[in-house]
């Protein structure tokens, strides 16, 4: 729970979360406050990672401050500001409840604060590769815990899931882009640091745009833990049949006919794509994979022909029998997930299903 006019990006869950002051990493505003109440599961304790605490210095941190309190024991940590920073980057508490209070008065400088937390069930929260210690050797797998809410924190990523990421990328943000964790849940990620490559290509995936990057000495390669028992889990699944709510029967200016039928929806199809009847208000495309399969994600692309058509967002439903349909709600399970689609008709956009969908039919 958060309250106040000084709250920035905030995502809090019982397992982990991320919070920041308003405008972070820009200068935080004058005369603001924010109070976050962190609540972990009963029987666990909170671990807080100080990603950045940059509040303008003042005597006893009287002008701008960060104060943490444990209401169960009455223990206080802080106040913190630039001339009174936390003694260690990780604060281990003995409580499942912690209150985080941020205050500011008049000031001229300061990025504000960025914190993450996890529980004693998931020790070790990280923002970037630099927080990993000791430095693992090349090609050795290692594991870190990424808190929920890393998608929208400040910082860049270079690369894509297929080639890996420049080692200067924000690690947990790259993990969301790679589709190995869901941002709203966070989780343990397994990766290796391997030899760098000459050029890292940009890609849009899971609501994030990575950058095109130059040569690096090392790169980060993520491994999908739930795929370890199925080496071919990243293969493209074969679709036995396509079906659709409608299709567009186009007659162009020269009187020529073109059928934008469901079979044209396969990503590898040349020529025009599938398109619903232009007057359709609730269009859907259905994929029959012939048998139940483990579906870990989807790639979409617009029509690359003369028509600049593409889908900007969509829902996904699945069925095991083609009659009873279940909307995909992702890891949160609270509401139907809206996937961010394409912004043009040329590029491919990938979205991961976390957890995967087990079904024969996908809509």
TrEMBL record:
The keyword Ribosomal protein does not apply. CDD domains: CUB, FA58C. It is found in: Membrane. InterPro entries: CUB_dom (IPR000859), FA58C (IPR000421), Galactose-bd-like_sf (IPR008979), LCCL (IPR004043), LCCL_sf (IPR036609), Neuropilin_MCO_CoagFactor (IPR050633), Sperma_CUB_dom_sf (IPR035914). Pfam families: CUB (PF00431), F5_F8_type_C (PF00754), LCCL (PF03815). Residues 274-363 form the F5/8 type C domain. GO terms for cellular component: plasma membrane. The keyword Membrane applies. Keywords: Disulfide bond, Membrane, Phosphoprotein, Transmembrane, Transmembrane helix. It is a single-pass type I membrane protein. Disulfide bonds join 7-34. Residues 144-220 form the LCCL domain. Residues 7-120 form the CUB domain. One of its GO terms (molecular function) is signaling receptor activity. PANTHER family: DISCOIDIN, CUB AND LCCL DOMAIN CONTAINING 1, F5/8 TYPE C DOMAIN-CONTAINING PROTEIN. This is DCBD1 protein. It comes from Cnemophilus loriae (Loria's bird-of-paradise). The gene is Dcbld1_1.
